[in-house]
UniProtKB/TrEMBL annotation:
Domain MTTase N-terminal: 33-151
Main localization of the protein described in the UniProt heading: cytoplasm
Xref: NCBIfam families: miaB-methiolase (TIGR01574), MiaB/RimO family radical SAM methylthiotransferase (TIGR00089)
Protein's organism: Thermoanaerobacterium butyriciformans
SUPFAM superfamilies: Radical SAM enzymes
Name the record gives this protein: tRNA-2-methylthio-N(6)-dimethylallyladenosine synthase
Amino acid sequence: MSERKEILVSDDDIKKQKEIINQMAVLNKDRYPKFHIETYGCQMNVHDSEKLAGMLTEMGYTHTDNLEDADVILFNTCCVREHAEIRIFGRVSQLKELKQRKPNITLGICGCMMQEKEVVEAIKNDYPYIDIVFGTHNLFKFPELLQESLNSDTTIIDIWDDNKSIVEDIPIRRAEGLKAWVNIIYGCNNFCTYCIVPYVRGREKSREPHDIINEIQSLANEGFKEITLLGQNVNSYGNDLPTKIDFADLLYMINDIDGIERIRFMTSHPKDISDKLIFAMRDLDKLCEHLHLPVQSGSNEILERMNRKYTRERYLEIINKLRDNIPGIAITTDIIVGFPGETDEDFQDTLDLVKEVRYDSAYTFIYSKRKGTPAEKMSNQVDEDIKHKRLEELINLQNAISIEKNNEMKGKIVEVLVEGTSKRDGEKLTGRTRTNKIVHFKAKPELIGKFVNVKIIDTKAWTMQGELISE
């Protein structure tokens, strides 16, 4: 097993990966091997999987949805919540029989879970049929790890504690042809007491603005219409760069790129929302009227225990300023129930805040202990039955609000970027509004990839039905 380490990646390291990619492409010529990737967790993981797919594609592999057809299978893992880890171990267990039938198949596990030492030990001891194990900091090194695995009878394990470099120019196989994810910052410095992300993703590292602009310009040249800027906390962008630049400055630069019609970003931390950013959202025509702003709790006591670094009052002040400056903005959030020490009064504070803010939608979660985080050792852990009852009450409240807010859209005409055919009704197309609402409507497939005007005729909590009024 490779020892854990912090590394500054050299040009020679990157050159080596490119050479291996070329060697593998020659080896795979006329063989047509296939790969399959399963992704768990956030959009950062989704984009990491696009990079893994990009490297595999350049090495001569083609994608397959069928595990039985794959020559390489990768699980890109998430460790933010216990449920995700349980699911992943279950899926890995199911591969044992496949490996016995197809011993030449390459099985790999990567991502956030692999940054946890006890998880790696469990894989070594309980899943010896896994061929490659690597983490979040050396994803760029995958070609070398794959080549090494193909020439070895032992599990290749390579985990880095950190990577002080940002490796650019990794091949990317985009999942879509209209919308693209673009990383602008990696890691997190916030250390919320419940969260494992700073430990598995490392400290904040911002990409150089010219690298971001060049990537987005290339996407525009390829016909992409919408980009979503990614980071654990995009609002911290630029704090670690030698040049003086912040997130709002970057947004102004991106807004000037011809061909890109919509700009989104996620995720934002309330403590770093500035007036400058709010005014950029107000003034930039390509920046969509949607903000995902995790509140986590409506109780000041719980927010302090979470180390969120803002109060309920400050959060509401931000919400009011957003709505004053950006009429019609859609605001979504994350909320945790059952955090250690959460009383009935604390939970009521959360319900009251949800009623006051009236989110368009919310991702709601039961607090999940994460090994090594301060919250794991906190006293007054909440009973599981109470957690589930609170979650149900919160979901019912938010669903009712979501339905009410979507009902307000009936009869209105909205701009929709047509993304494809509806998965539930093949006769309908589907797309999103600037406020990130999903709309289904009948229209010809030729409109996929175009912006159209749609009149909303019916709504539910998560989707809307419309009719095309112009082409």
